[in-house]
DNA sequence: TTATTATATCGTAATATTGCAATATAAAAA
DNA sequence: TTTTTATATTGCAATATTACGATATAATAA
């Protein structure tokens, strides 16, 4: 085999896993961090920021977009990408809940 | 190719990516969530909680341990796993910083 | 000692990811 | 119109992940 048995897990577990999978590559972490340094959303120069070829960057952007971590809107010839605040707030609150639960533990 | 070009990214970006990679499988999310429901750290029954064979669960536990997300200590014949609070706090603070930065954005 | 119990490792097949050259698309400029 | 510019898609080779049967290890029980 090799395919993950996602049918046996809850929807929430699968959703969380796919969010983390989207962030599980250094290039995609770098993209997020670059988007954070840019003031506006007009940012079609992500390709120049990364040590990867244009098709590869395009593929990484697609994965981040499919996971809902970034949003992209067409701006003439260029495309304007920015971080999806809602998703990142969800992720933060997930870890916030985990850490709250951990406070009542022994370990 | 197929190997990710981790040499071209910063250590922090690679570290974060490997933390997220550890969480990028629903079984491993399920393991974390199960560990949260258990009061003590004595928990050698993760295998019975998951719809996966013992070697597969063992492999997932190893990945979580290697990434520093869980800790495991030998407890006689069994092994006692628990969540590594330090790592999870780090992840929460990473997203907390991101969300703070996002507040000063247009989008 | 010989079970038994709990977990890890090995080996391997199925599948997924990564990266990029080549090519396609689609909007704006000439 | 044709060219340029920006991004996406296709196709494919290299590599990584997932899953599990078989087997190994290592501590306790009998």
Report on this model:
Two copies of one chain form a homodimer. Chain A is mainly alpha-helical. The first copy, chain A, has one domain: Winged helix-like DNA-binding domain superfamily/Winged helix DNA-binding domain (Arc Repressor Mutant, subunit A), CATH 1.10.10.10. Chain A has helices at 11-22, 26-37, 46-49, 54-66, 85-103, and strands spanning 70-75, 78-83. The first copy, chain A, has a two-stranded antiparallel sheet with strand order 1-2. The longest helix of chain A is centred in the last third of the chain and has 19 residues, at 85-103. The radius of gyration of chain A is 16 Å and the shape is globular. The mean pLDDT of chain A is 89. At the A-B interface, helix 1, helix 2 and helix 5 of A face helix 1, helix 2 and helix 5 of B. Chain A binds a DNA duplex (30 and 30 nucleotides) through residues 1-5, 25, 27, 44, 47, 52-62, 74, 76-79.
Brief overview, please?
The structure is a homodimer of 107-residue chains. Chain A is mainly alpha-helical.
Distance between the termini of chain A: 36 Å
- The low-pLDDT segments of chain A are none
Q: At the third CATH level, what is the topology name of chain A?
A: Arc Repressor Mutant, subunit A
**SSE string of chain A, helix = H, strand = E?**
HHHHEEH
């Amino acid at each position: 085999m090799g395919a993950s048995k996602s049918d046996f897990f809850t929807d929430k577990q699968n959703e969380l896993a796919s969010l983390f999978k989207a962030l599980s590559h250094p290039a995609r972490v770098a993209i997020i961090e670059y988007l954070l340094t840019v003031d506006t959303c007009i940012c079609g120069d992500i390709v120049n920021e990364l040590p990867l070829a244009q098709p590869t960057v395009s593929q990484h952007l697609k994965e981040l977009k499919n996971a809902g971590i970034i949003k992209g809107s067409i701006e003439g010839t260029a495309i304007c990408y920015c971080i999806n605040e809602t998703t990142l707030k969800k992720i933060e609150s997930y870890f916030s809940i985990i850490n709250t639960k951990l406070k009542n533990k022994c370990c």
